[in-house]
């Protein structure tokens, strides 16, 4: 048995469905919403590369290092992708990452609910000891969103990896531990209950 096993997670605002090749056309449309592939500080596949990106993620799933999801909104429209990645079954750790969301679905509560579902599954079903988040040091929108969840900054990995344009990326690493999860869960429930 692989760890973690594919699963569908459903909430009020979103559903996380195991990624499939047939999601490519709808996800290409989602990437066009905001021309997300043009953002220099993140890696969103261009519409014509969506099928290849899905194939790449499914290959990582087959090797046991990733569990990728397509993100759907409450109306059933594909609005992005996210993953458990850098899966460490021995130490019961995952990273939530390779996440992107169509511009029209940003700042709607959808991302917060997706993170809550992924964290709940990680801590309460997979018995994770910690969950990581990583982003470009200069991706301030992503860093604010991660910090808003309650994750703590572990540090900056300087000159950590090359970006698609060849520049060196400094990576901000955040985490939530199992001991912190009950408080974080309460915080996320409060965020989701707030009127928008």
TrEMBL record:
Matches recorded under PANTHER family: BLL6696 PROTEIN, N-ACETYLTRANSFERASE DOMAIN-CONTAINING PROTEIN
Protein name: Putative N-acetyltransferase
Organism of this sequence: Rubrivivax gelatinosus (strain NBRC 100245 / IL144)
Keywords, in A-Z order: Transferase
Gene Ontology MF annotations: acyltransferase activity, transferring groups other than amino-acyl groups
One family name in Pfam for this protein: Acetyltransf_3
Coiled-coil boundaries: none
Family annotation (InterPro entries): Acyl_CoA_acyltransferase (IPR016181), GNAT_dom (IPR000182)
Positions of the N-acetyltransferase domain: 14-180
